[in-house]
Amino acid sequence: MATPAATAALLLTPVQTLATNGARAVETFTIDGMLHLAIPQLALDIPGQPTAMNGGDSDTDALIYRWKAGRFVEATTLPLPGGEDVEFFTLGARHFLATCGVRSCRGPYSLDTEAVLYEHDGTQWQPFQRFAVFAAKQWRFFTLGERHFLALAQGVTVEGVVPHHPRESYLFEWDSERFVPFQRLDGRWGYNWAFARIGAQHLLAYADHVDGSLIYRWEDERFEPLQRFDPTGGRAFCFFEAAGTLWMVYANLSGATRLCRFDGTQFEPVQTLGEAGGRELKLIDGAHGRYLVRVCFITGTPHDPHTSLTSQIYRWNSNGFDLADSFPTTGGTDAATFVADGQRYLLVSNSLSAKVRFRADTVLYRFDG
């Protein structure tokens, strides 16, 4: 099996590798015209410890890079134990980074942690607000009219673990001074969010590993369930509009990734895009069309994972997707795309090596699509 840095045909050319440990996400953002990249890290390898994807030293930092002369260079770090996600957003002229991690310590681990929202003071990142969280996985910022929301996906079901912090996934709303609780969701193992508008409808997708993944619709000043998907394995959603129709892609770690079309009331499946292993999705509107990146994580089980997988890039054909390219990942977790100096790039984070170690490169590719 080729390494993540090996050259992929057709669309991708690797141009840089970043030395990361258990990388769980890639988040690009721009402040004052300067492109930056944030990478949360789940864990560091502990010398002599047997391989285990849920082991390691989780007292880690998020890595912050800046773009310089066609490459990312290290700029700073932020403390982020068991790092899972970094979400950048702006409120007016203010810049924020919402961070969260799933756990802390070197074992035994604590799943009760603190998620920190940072604000940039013009020079560096300063803590702005703290949240008591339990096994936190992802923040997602979105706006609905003049209202601003932060969605937190969190929770896990582990025998013998009793949460001391709130365990349910939550929506928080900006009250002009801070984010306050707005709506609790009942999922016990949240992973991911996606938000979409179609006409007057506002939809919020929530992926959950054990309680079924749902799409909610905004009704009567709250989000109400619209449609439920697979009972287990939910990892990611993405929405896009084409020719006046809303489409959705849903990734399930233990089952197929599916393309669905919205008929005005429900999403109906129309195409299967790969079998088990899908963890994250990224749409790219490139120079030659629309593309979908499907990042694959593992197959097997957490106790016996197969990390060396093939991830895919699909090209939109107006009614579905055609396979356009593929590339190797080892415990792939996320993808991000950006344009710099007239060239489009794709970033892919790998969280585990082929030997199930946390030391695995994040890869920057030139994207020629």
Task: Describe what this molecule looks like in 3D.
The chain is mainly beta. The chain has a domain at 20-184: Tachylectin-2, Chain A (5 Propeller), CATH 2.115.10.20. Helix content is 0%, strand content 60%. It contains no helices and 30 strands. The strands form 8 sheets. The protein has a 4-stranded antiparallel sheet, with no helix packed on it. It has a 4-stranded antiparallel sheet with strand order 2-3-4-5, with no helix packed on it. The radius of gyration is 19 Å and the shape is globular. It starts with 11 loop residues before the first strand and ends with a strand.
CATH architectural arrangement of the domain at 20-184 = 5 Propeller
Number of helices: 0
Secondary structure: helix percent = under 10%
Number of strands: 30
> What is the overall silhouette?
globular
> Tell me about the biggest sheet?
4 strands, antiparallel
Order of helices and strands: EEEEEEEEEEEEEEEEEEEEEEEEEEEEEE
In round numbers, the mean pLDDT is: 96
CATH superfamily of the domain at 20-184: Glycosyl hydrolase domain, family 43
Q: Span between N and C termini? A: 25 Å
Q: What's the CATH C level of the domain at 20-184? A: Mainly Beta
Sheet/helix structural class: mainly beta
